Amino acid sequence: MRNVGLIALLTLLSGTACGYPEYGSKRSGEVHYDMSHRSVMYFAPSNDDKVKEFLLGTLTNECSLDERDVVTLVITEDGFSSPAWVKETFDYSTLIKMYGINKGEHAAVLIGKDGSEKLRWGAKTDWALVKETIDAMPMRQAEMKRAASRCSI
User: Fold this and answer.
1) What letter does residue 7 receive in the DSSP assignment?
2) Which of 10, 31, 80, 93 could form a disulfide linkage to 76, CB 3.0–4.6 angstroms apart?
């Protein structure tokens, strides 16, 4: 039973780790990205009201984000992360350097399935803009042709 849990955990972590640019695989001298999801990474100095507002927004938009294969991550300078395992997998200082985030700043970055940055914003998240940006992406256009929205009322 312990082995099943270990395999499940490793599978979960390896899939998530592949969603970030530093985990791209090299192919003929180029970096190739083949992601199963898009990512929104939210950086903050602490687990403050702006972080809580972002997390509430992820819940409010859960169906739309899930439909668009978006994984959301929050990581703060003071050690808070959501999901909790993020701080054990990713180093805050390395990530803010990689994405050019200033210490003490609230910032979010949308990463596409190709591993490239698609959108960047500050403390307040405009979820309609995030969804519009994703829906304009070629991969998302193809996804929308294959299946109707399951989030429409």
Assistant:
1) H
2) 80
pLDDT per residue of the chain (153 residues) written in tens, 0 to 9: 555 444 444 444 444 444 444 444 434 344 444 568 999 999 999 999 999 999 999 999 999 999 999 999 999 999 999 999 998 998 899 999 999 999 999 999 999 999 999 999 999 999 999 999 999 999 898 988 998 888 876
What distance in Å separates the CA atoms of residue 33 and residue 18, rounded to the nearest whole number?
9
Q: How many domains are contained in the chain?
A: 1
Q: What is the pTM of this model?
A: 0.76
Q: Are 113 and 69 in contact (CB under 8 A)?
A: yes
Name the one residue in this structure whose structure tokens are 């190739």. 32
- Pairing outcome for strands 70-76 and 38-44: parallel
151 belongs to a structural domain:
no
| Owning domain of residue 139 | 2-24+34-146
Question: C-alpha angle 141/21/79, rounded to 5°?
Answer: 115
Q: Please give the biggest Cα pair distance in the chain.
A: 47
Is 105 within 8 Å of 42 (Cβ atoms)?
no
For the domain that residue 19 is a member of, what is the CATH number?
Answer: 3.40.30.10
